[in-house]
Amino acid sequence: AQLARAGTVGTQGAKLLLEVSERVRTLTQAYFSPERPLHLSFTHLVCRSAIEGEQEQRMDLSHPVHADNCVLDPDTGECWREPPAYTYRDYSGLLYLNDDFQGGDLFFTEPNALTVTARVRPRCGRLVAFSSGGENPHGVWAVTRGRRCALALWHTWAPEHREQEWIEAQELLQESEEEEEEEEEEMPSKDPSPEPPSRRHQRVQDKAGKAPRVREEL
After folding, report:
1. Total-model pTM
2. Most buried one in 50, 59, 186, 210, CB count within 10 A?
3. What positions carry a catalytic annotation?
4. Position 212 in a domain
């Protein structure tokens, strides 16, 4: 929102980011937590590009296997919900913004971080949401061609961990819109149309005493 206000990025793009993130929050709450409100705790727009060089048989990861609200220990299968983990995160979401790339699949594993249990191929507009705990260890395979962009979002039940930057961005954009409206109201028209001349109607009595008629003078 600050970049939009400075003119570095478009205001419409910044507004779209806020609207989409709120839509994701609404859908996630409706599916997972209809009786308890969820709040956005962090929103992250991220793009990953393929590195140069040989791509065949690549098995490296863009994001190593982890859980979002606890520290995963693959050796014991435990996930410790303590710092430095973001322990207040309750649900996670990924909204894919494109699919014209190769690699970059999201995958889920057993707590050992080795046994893959599910794999998700990114599709533009696809939303993947899941609980953030040790029941959902996940990672991302490397992008092997092109660039992968996604909007990552985390949600919390704790209102004290709401994303303040999101609220401030919304307020900044609202202020910018109000300022633009005021400027438009104060700005005079560049090509004002002349007002049409007033028409005067004069009744003229017919010389023969007939009913009066109207003559227009421009």
Report:
1. 0.77
2. 50
3. 148
4. no
